[in-house]
Amino acid sequence: MSIHQSLFNYINESSLIIQVTWIMSAFFMVVIIPLTFYFRYLRKHLRKQERTVALYEQKYESYLINYLYSGNEQEIISPEQQVIINQLKRSTSESYKRKILISVLIKLKNEISGEIAESIQTLYFHSGLMQYALNRLNHKKWYVIAKGIRELKQFHIKEAYDQVILHINHPRREVRKEMQLYMVSLFHFEGLKFLELLETPLSEWDQIQLLGVLERLESKNISNIKLWLRSNNKSVVFFALKLAKIYNQFECKEEIINLLNHINKKVRLESIQVLNYLDVIEAKEILKENIEKRTLEEQIAFFKMMENLYEKSDESFIINFIHSEVFEIKVSSLKILKILNKDKFTKLKVEFPDPDFLKIINFLENN
Amino acid sequence: MITQIIIDIIQYLFFIYSICAILSYLVLATISAIETIEYKHKNSFVNYKEIMSSTISPSISIIAPAYNESLNIVENVRSLLSNHYVNYDVIIINDGSKDDSLEKLITVYNLVPVDYLMNEQIVTQPLRKGIYKSTNPAFEKLIVVDKENGGKSDALNMGLNISNSKYVACIDVDCLLLEDSLQKMIKPFLEITDKKVIAAGGVIRISNSCIVKDGKLHDVNFPKKLIEQGQILEYIRAFLLGRMAWSRLNGLLVISGAFGLFDKKIAIQVGGYDKNTVGEDMELVVRMRGYMEEQNKKYKVAYIPDPLCWTEAPDNYKIFISQRNRWTRGTIETLKKHRKIGFNPKYKTLGVLSYPYWFFFERMAPVVEFVGILYFAILVISNKIRWDYAFSFIVLAYLFTVFFSLIALITEELTYHQYKKKGTGFRLLLIAFLEPLVNHPFILYAAIRGNIDYYFNKKKKWGEMTRKGMTKA
Which of A227, B12, B379, B417 has a CA positioned 20 to 30 A from the CA of residue B64? Predict the structure, then answer.
């Protein structure tokens, strides 16, 4: 009897446990061998790929430098430049090479400015790369669309506006984020008009990035944000509140005051903070009327506002909160009292010898 | 006859347990692959530089407890201060160190005592010499707190009291954070709009043999000692194939104490770190999750697979066993303390999936393995052993471990490809085949010792970790 036959007989005659265990072992054994070879191949392949990328990068960089120096003032594209464009066009048909070429172009574009940067843009257009990016916008996969929009943004292709805006309420937040960044990077404050059409949430991450782009702009002519402060999309309201704070939109104070009664507690909280920043004293009086009915966070924010907007007449109100159980409210009240009535503040030391209370008094006295 | 029936039943129980363990690992690996691909797509075009320069990005406090860290404290603090995130501070809690850590910090960073009004929301050991800040504007982000010794949890709780930030990153002081680590960790907190992100954990990588220059990771090397290599493989397996899947299932129970970012308000609301456990990192996450479930709030514990934090791992078996012993006790303590969550549908994924998995395949795995070895020994002594049965089990266990390690290594190559140097590939492969033999027996021993210590040696707390410091360029 052959070994093969005896092994087969052994398995056949074994119990179910042993059969299953050996079958699984055989399976793993069979899989481990190709996995080991694949691992070796993969490492080699990755190293080779790194070398190839570096090689192509070098090649494209030299093409691009030649391209930039072959231009003349008479023609948009000189004959020498056309030759280079034709050479690059051949590379763009392969997605692998196209990817490298685009990364080199972006790197170069970020390092230069003025006419040379415009020249790169011309190259991007005439080499057919722009068409590839536009085609990506109709792709089924979300990440292909997002990358397409990003590329169009990086090369300042304003003409793609109509196709990009279509993705305003795309189910994937990454696509929406790229659409938003495209709008603001290329159309600046005007680009923010997408907020009027936005039905999906604008995350804090998105907001920070948009504000980052706006911060870098030379022009600070902000659009009218009143409409966004009245938006049904609460994240748009949040964003508008941030704009109001950063760009000192005092003329929107009525709209922001109205938000003090917004259904969403975070909007109410943010509104208090912005009104505090804008020194809107009317807001203080409105909040004083029903402060105890508000959430704890709103109360703390209100007392921070009081620290900034206190008046002599507030003393009787403040005195009610110096023993508040909320640490922040207690500290804010005592801080204000110290300014409004130093004698009364000093006497508290004798009147209330509680060590924790004294710790706060002593700290405020010295700072 | 009866003996044979008992033997058969036991064999079937071991068999069912093993099959369930293998299947669970395979399912987790598959889910991890899906999540990793998704993560890579999502982050392939994120520009983290944009967020780090934004002044409206939320504030983060890095809290780092230090106990007798004099050897490396100055360098470690320098590394923490070199993060690229714009809105953060570093709170070093000197937890009653008996060495000259504080004096070194005072001298190097020009520290002076300051008056600091602290809201003591969590009770901790009192301050010793007080709170220090630097007179040098270059170190304005640094706060050093000198307090009486109370252990790691107590020190972290002091940090929670001191911090004025919305988020706190709790880390081990000797950890090396990459410069963009905070941007990457904060992203899920700011990005997810339909759930509240309560905590985020990152991947921990082993820094043994790596070169550090000016507090930054300069060169990644693969260590020479088998014990260190084995741990590298183990970490890759756990972080890339395990936690990634649990993150997708929103069932992550543990965030490594070496580096985790928390919503400070929730961490304080649940009472901060538990001082009575050695597994304070896992315990806090379970408690925060339990709290959110009880409040019926939608939440997520996020996970970032990028290698953001590098830490020194034990390079000898004594410290290795002591560390794993502590991990075992921490797991037992946490699962026991929160047993009401286990198998309780009220806690959804946490109760019916995460907890049972941790109970059966993390907490019970070494116990089942040990019982299996005992059972094997009894059968050998009583001459009732079926050698083919025993052999088939050992072969299956070994091959599956190697298979799983290879999958982890391939995932690592396809994603982060950290060990690029020529020759390392062969050593990685070799350790995949050797690890079940060189590290696993010690892990099993440490886990059994952990169980024994938990039940019979309640006084045992933290073991000692002798720091060598990272290799400097």
Answer: B417
* Helical pair A265-277 and A234-246, crossing angle rounded to 10 deg: 10
All residues of chain B having their beta carbon less than 8 Å from the beta carbon of residue A47 are 420, 422
> Hunting for tokens 């109970």 — which residue is that?
B359
B272: nearest Cα among B287, B252, B256: B287
**Which chain A residues touch B300 with a CB distance below 8 Å?**
none
Query: If you measure CA to CA, which chain A residue comes closest to B19?
Result: A21
Q: Indicate whether A73 pLDDT > 80.
A: no
| Tokens describing residue B444 | 């099993």
Q: Is the ipTM of this complex over 0.95?
A: no
Please provide the DSSP assignment of A153-210 as one string. Answer: HHTT-GGGHHHHHTTTT-SSHHHHHHHHHHHHHHHHHHHGGGGGT--S---HHHHHHH
Pairwise CA distance, residues A89 & A58, whole Å = 17
Q: Are B89 and B118 within 8 A, CB to CB?
A: no
Specify the amino acid at residue A192.
L
Q: Residues A161-186: pLDDT tens digits?
A: 999 999 999 999 999 999 999 999 99
Query: Rounded CA gap, B38 and B303, in Å?
Result: 13
Say if the Cβ atoms of A143 and B44 lie within 8 Å: yes
Per-residue pLDDT of A14-67, as tens digits, reads 888 899 999 999 999 999 999 999 999 999 999 999 999 999 999 999 999 899
Q: Work out the minimum CA distance from A61 to partner chain B, whole angstroms.
A: 22
Q: What one-letter code names the amino acid at B332?
A: I
Could you tell me if B92 and B145 are in contact, meaning their C-beta atoms sit under 8 angstroms apart? yes
CA dist A260 and A247 (Å) reads: 20
A243 token code pair: 């704009």
- Whole-number pLDDT of residue B2: 85
Nearest CA in chain A to B400: A28
Chain A residues in contact with B420 (beta carbon < 8 A): 46-47
Contact B402 A32 (CB under 8 A): yes
CA distance A310 to chain B (A): 22
Distance CA A204, CA A210 (A): 10
Q: Which residue has the tokens 């029936």?
A: B5
Cβ(B303)–Cβ(B243) under 8 Å? yes
A window 277-316, beta carbon within 8 A of B: none
Q: Which of A229, A236, A184 is nearest to A209 (CA)?
A: A184
**Which chain B residues contact residue A203 at CB under 8 A?**
190-193
Number of Cβ pairs < 8 A linking chain A and chain B: 121
Interface of A with B in 236-255 (CB under 8 A): 242, 246
Closest CA to B254 of B331, B194, B166: B331
Phi and psi angles of residue A288, each rounded to the nearest 5 degrees, phi first: -55, -35
Count of all residues that appear for chain A in the document: 367
